[in-house]
Design goal:
two-stranded antiparallel sheet; VWA domain-containing protein; vWFA_dom_sf
């Protein structure tokens, strides 16, 4: 059975998951998507990259929601974009809130509105926001709902290099890389980073470590989102994702 067959949907209506009474270990996944100007100018299969991404998200989201009634039933997503409009939360009620009804949403109810591309690449700010939100959510769920939580998982997708909000190059990623290393040392977080042509490989390796960084040779957005789904599943490790990216080849 393929990885994605686990998420096939054979029901007509979604079944909501009541996370207030659920007794499983809650898992938090932050998906960070680069929506900078390059996504508005890069072409893939005759389409702007951002238009192709929106089309593929429409295909992908029902698969995630189906997984939310099975293998992803314990997963909550927060989706953050960085580029057009700066750093934005686009999941849940689209506010920077880790409380119930805020930015986090169960996989079974994940929605992502059509995304717009433009502006700079404030990647560092986006990752720092994700770290803050997942830590706040972890504390909230443990305190308010008295539930166990697993280590958060960050999935970073980018085709550029970090800038500030005005588009100026920044080396703030070096400070962020040190912070991420501290999180990994306490086994509180995994970072999977997917880089498409145009990305700064040095930065992505520094943030995700060489094991957690997966450079892609082309801008195949359908394959990219399928890889994101692999990285979201429980008990996945870097080698499993690497096998999906490179097959039997060793990069």
């Amino acid at each position: 059975m393929s990885t994605f067959a686990l998420f096939e949907d054979d029901t007509d209506e979604p079944v909501d998951v009541d996370f207030v009474t659920d007794t499983h270990r809650r898992r938090f996944v932050a998906l960070l998507i680069d929506t900078s100007q390059s996504m508005a100018t890069t072409q893939t299969n005759g389409m702007r990259a951002i238009d192709a991404l929106n089309r593929e998200l429409e295909r992908w989201l029902p698969t995630v929601r189906a997984g939310g009634r099975g293998p992803l039933r314990d997963v909550e997503f927060v989706v953050i974009t960085f580029g057009a409009t700066g750093v934005s939360v686009v999941s849940g009620n689209r506010t920077i809130s880790a409380e119930d009804g805020g930015a986090f949403v169960p996989a079974s109810r994940l929605e992502i509105p059509p995304l717009a591309a433009g502006g700079a690449t404030p990647m560092v700010e986006a990752v720092e926001l994700a770290l803050s939100l997942v830590e706040q959510r972890r504390q909230y769920v443990q305190t308010i709902h008295a539930q166990q939580t697993g280590g958060p998982r960050l999935i970073l997708v980018s085709d550029g290099e970090p800038t500030d909000r005005e588009g100026n190059p920044t080396d703030d990623w070096q400070r962020l890389a040190h912070r991420l290393e501290q999180w990994r040392a306490t086994r509180r977080m995994q970072l999977f980073a997917f880089g498409v042509p145009g990305v700064d490989d040095e930065v992505m390796r520094a943030l995700a470590t060489p094991n957690g960084y997966f450079p892609l040779e082309d801008l195949d957005l359908r394959r990219l989102l399928d890889l994101v789904l692999v990285a979201t599943t429980d008990h996945v490790d870097f080698e499993r994702v690497r096998s999906h990216v490179f097959g039997d080849e060793i990069p």
